Amino acid sequence: MNRPVPATHAAVEFVDVVFRRPAAGERGNGVAVLDGVSFTLNRGEVLAIVGPSGAGKTTLLHLVNRLLEADGGEVRVGGRRVRDWPPPALRRHAGLVFQSAPMLPGTVFDNLEAPLRLAGRALSRAEAARWLEAVELDPALLEQDAATLSSGQKQRVALLRTLATEPAVLLVDEVTSALDMASARVVESLVLDRVRTRGLSVLWVTHDEAQARRVAHRVLHLEGGRVRYLGPVDGYRWPAHPTDGPGKVACRPAGEGGGS
Ligand SMILES: Nc1ncnc2c1ncn2[C@@H]1O[C@H](COP(=O)(O)OP(=O)(O)O)[C@@H](O)[C@H]1O
Ligand SMILES: [Mg+2]
After folding, report:
1. Where is this region: Disordered (predicted)?
2. What is the pLDDT averaged over residues 169-186?
3. Exposure of 62 by Cβ count < 10 A (0-12 exposed, 13-18 middle, 19+ buried)?
4. Mutate-to-test residue for ligand 1 from 50, 59, 69, highest number of ligand atoms within 8 A of CB
5. Within a domain: residue 250?
6. 37 in a structural domain
7. Which CATH number fits the domain that encloses residue 95?
8. Are 38 and 16 in contact (CB under 8 A)?
9. pLDDT at 217 > cutoff 50
10. Residue 53 Cα, ligand 2 centroid: separation in angstroms?
11. pLDDT tens-place string over residues 24-50
């Protein structure tokens, strides 16, 4: 996608961030999983995070809402250091959608309602039905045990569950990997609508080049825990042979080549 990067203040900033596994002090100094990572996500921007398996993409997302803590450098969200945020407020502000889409025990409705209830808000059946329809899921699913959903259905419910709480920053980890192209596009439209109308800012981990082109303003390519590219989608040379990731072929329109 070729849209100008919105010129607004930072939603997320990484300044020379280092993260080691095992954590510093556990066993020696650990191996740097992220090594001097710096970037800014502007408000109302979608930044695609790409790179091979093990590059550190999921780790990067988890540092934003403090599921993990950096060993060096600084992570700021909304202009504030993550360690200065109360964690529950941080996690509402920066909502994460896990790739595995873990469901809470209970029905689909229970899953959609739970985060809202934590935030002191109610959810009506009619509202919940509209959420499902927005991603082309049958509202009859509301009463179904969430554990019985397919992985593609779970991914959509997990995304809705997070979007319903109206985060300012959305952290998306391969959320369409189990979806066919049509369903992936419906999910993309829903997120992009929030970007355009509410200034939602998105870090979107994807293996799917065509998807990154459709949704992102810029690309951040991580490899071996370092930033290999940060810039406009159009200036990025996609690897000719992406090394991993489900969905990248399934979601590429017929006739579109693998690299540049
Ligand atoms: N819980 C963990 N314990 C030890 N190493 C881990 C753990 N989680 C991830 N790693 C390692 O950290 C690196 C980055 O992982 P990750 O952020 O999940 O990469 P990506 O999402 O790009 O595939 C990999 O080398 C991975 O093996
Ligand atoms: Mg990952």
Report:
1. 241-260
2. 93
3. middle
4. 59
5. no
6. yes
7. 3.40.50.300
8. yes
9. yes
10. 7
11. 555 666 899 999 999 999 999 999 999
